[in-house]
Structure to design on (286 residues):
């Protein structure tokens, strides 16, 4: 006799039936991961992994989610979100094996956090607040949580694994909350000019390490300018990357029409084609 929902026989072990049940939801995925990590019957590659080796995949999957959203690729987004969910399940399984936490404890912790951070929705506080007031309340709650974790310093708890531009903005936001910030955007622009001059001087007179340091200082201030202009620097740079890719593809297409490759063209010729690419797509590129 066959179970119509799973296609498995009625004598199939419960765990096996769960794995092949398309309607079993998160429990199915948890069991799949448990089986993949089983030291006797699991996948050798999955068994060998640890938190550190999986972390880069977690970051990569998050970026692929962001990429699908940016491209409006809604048909792909479902799969990318599944890949990202798998990463959480993977870490949860490894945490359970080591006795650190379980998937259920992770769910409980984030649920408790969301309830605690939204007293205007789940508690007695009024919802009659502006978005800015709610953001300020959110930051106060997070500050209390950091204090409970003995994160006393203003910059404590800003994850070191964040993309550098994102971390720079978060560090600057933290410092700005205690008054350490330029009050005017023009002052940030002046600082950019100063850092650019120092980079030019370092390039002429100093070591490669000094040049790299000055370049980092310039990028850090550029991130600060993004804050003052209310721009996400990561989003802005991704858009610039997409623009560059689009325009360079235009150059390749035009040269390819003549049976040529960019390496066969002069810089002046490619510059002219670049200008043509800008003129061809004015709306997205301006």
């Amino acid at each position: 006799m066959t179970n119509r929902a799973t296609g498995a026989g009625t004598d199939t072990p419960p765990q096996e039936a769960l794995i092949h049940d398309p309607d079993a939801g998160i429990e199915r995925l948890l069991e799949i991961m448990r089986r993949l990590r089983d030291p006797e019957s699991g996948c050798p590659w999955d068994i060998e992994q640890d938190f550190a080796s999986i972390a880069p995949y977690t970051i990569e999957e998050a970026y692929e989610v962001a990429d699908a959203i940016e491209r409006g690729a809604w048909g792909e987004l479902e799969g990318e979100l599944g890949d990202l969910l798998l990463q959480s399940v993977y870490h949860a399984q490894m945490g359970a094996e080591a006795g650190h936490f379980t998937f259920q404890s992770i769910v409980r912790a984030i649920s408790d956090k969301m309830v605690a951070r939204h007293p205007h929705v789940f508690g007695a506080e009024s919802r009659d607040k502006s978005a800015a007031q709610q953001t300020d309340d959110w930051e106060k709650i997070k500050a209390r949580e950091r204090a409970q974790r003995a994160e006393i310093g203003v910059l404590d708890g800003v994850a070191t694994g964040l993309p550098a531009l994102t971390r720079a903005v978060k560090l600057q936001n933290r410092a700005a909350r205690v008054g350490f910030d330029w009050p005017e955007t023009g002052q940030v622009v002046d600082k950019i000019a100063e850092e650019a001059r120092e980079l030019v001087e370092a390039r002429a007179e100093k070591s490669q390490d000094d040049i790299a340091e000055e370049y980092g200082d310039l990028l850090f201030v550029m991130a600060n300018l993004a804050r003052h202009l209310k721009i996400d620097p990561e989003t802005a740079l991704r858009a610039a990357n997409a623009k560059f890719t689009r325009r360079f593809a235009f150059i390749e297409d035009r040269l390819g029409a003549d049976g040529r490759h960019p390496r066969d063209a002069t810089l002046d010729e490619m510059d002219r084609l670049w200008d043509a690419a800008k003129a061809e797509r004015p709306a997205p590129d301006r």
